[in-house]
């Protein structure tokens, strides 16, 4: 079970800095062909409208879930259930996407803002269509104050960790831990429900690493040179992709549903090109096929 507790928004932001450093290492491993691709990409945002710094946390500010002190056993975890598919319509708020498109160039890993913006638009459009088929209605966030923006981002960071840990339960060795999986991220987003009437919020997260032509050319030349010398080369993965979607329950502060898709390609084509609208529609439809079941928590 992962720890998702924070005593104040300030500690949450300190944690988010450490988390971003971890993500940078993770994305770099994707570019080098690492087998495991962690979930989040809130780490290295391209230069797209950063929110203003929030004021210091106060006792009245909504906070991320507080850690239980040592001593008495913690209270039972809340029951977690995704909204049932059917005729009943639930309003779902679209949270700021943290998906990022990277290019693995000769000079190193670089976030590409234009690619990222195109992918995010396609992902939100595809999610809206997929949600409608399940009886959920996706709507934009209302206008938020800088302090509220900071609260939303802090809770997104915790939700990313929960989904990242949950995605590991697809592996047989992790199944024995599912009963202790805590999907609570805190009650600090309840104000969104009170303001809009929405019961859920949707987060689209992930990253895609694509190799530049120069990088791929260097890899091919290296492979050919090794082949000429009689050496068998197994080319490590040069591109990679991880796409996560999750529904957050705004009433009880839990991750109600999530799914994750991971892929890698040794020559840097990195799975589906999410800059293409039709391709993104197919990728999102595949992720929502299991809804409301969570594949990572299934036998």
What is the strand and helix layout of this fold?
Layout: H1 9-31, E1 90-94, E2 100-105, E3 108-111, H2 113-132, E4 136-140, H3 146-167, H4 190-196, E5 200-211, H5 213-228, E6 239-249, E7 254-265, H6 277-288
Helix pairs in contact: 1-3, 2-6
Could you give the order of the helices and strands? HEEEHEHHEHEEH
The N- and C-terminal alpha carbons lie at a distance of 18 Å
Low-confidence stretches: 1-12, 14-75, 214-237
**What is the overall pLDDT average?**
73
Number of helices: 6
| Helix content class | 25-40%
Alpha carbon gyration radius: 20 Å
Main sheet: strands, sense, barrel: 7 strands, mixed
Strand fraction: 15-25%
Structural class: alpha/beta
Question: How many domains is the backbone divided into?
Answer: 1
Query: What is the count of β-strands?
Result: 7
Q: What sort of overall outline do the alpha carbons produce when their principal axes are compared?
A: globular
Index terms:
seven-stranded mixed beta sheet, 18% strand, 299 residues, alpha/beta, disordered N terminus
Sum this structure up briefly.
This protein has 299 residues and is α/β, with parallel strands linked by helices. It has helices spanning 9-31, 113-132, 146-167, 190-196, 213-228, 277-288, and strands at residues 90-94, 100-105, 108-111, 136-140, 200-211, 239-249, 254-265. Strands 1, 2, 3, 4, 5, 6 and 7 form a 7-stranded mixed beta sheet that branches.
